[in-house]
Amino acid sequence: MKINEETILKLASLSKLKFEKKEMDLITNDMQKMIDFIQTLEEINTDGVKPLIHMTEGYNNCRQDEVKEMLDQKEALKNGPQSDSTYFKIPKVLDK
């Protein structure tokens, strides 16, 4: 499949995007590389290869919950640069 300017204009129209000429050239080139890669993948012989559903063989590998020692609130608050009785103080992030 050959990607051309007409294809990119059609995709741009469908996605409500507009591109400059320079962008069109870059997008056309990138899109052609993607199509070429997919066509290369299609040429690979996968006869006898079982479909892959999960990346690993294991399913639902759950572990038992274990109660572990935790820091109390005072010890945890010592880990922050600033705190006030029951919470960490942080710099203001959002303005009203």
Structure description:
The model has no long low-confidence stretch (mean pLDDT 89). This protein has a two-stranded antiparallel sheet with strand order 1-2. Helices cover 39% and strands 4% of the residues. It is flat and about 65 Å long. The protein has helices at 5-14, 21-42, 73-77; strands spanning 83-84, 87-88. 0% of the residues are buried. It has a domain at 5-42. The chain starts with a helix and ends in an 8-residue tail after the last strand. By secondary structure, it is mainly alpha-helical. The protein is built from three helices and two strands.
Which key terms come to mind for this protein?
single chain, about 100 residues, mainly alpha, two-stranded antiparallel ribbon, 3 helices, 2 strands, about 5% strand, flat
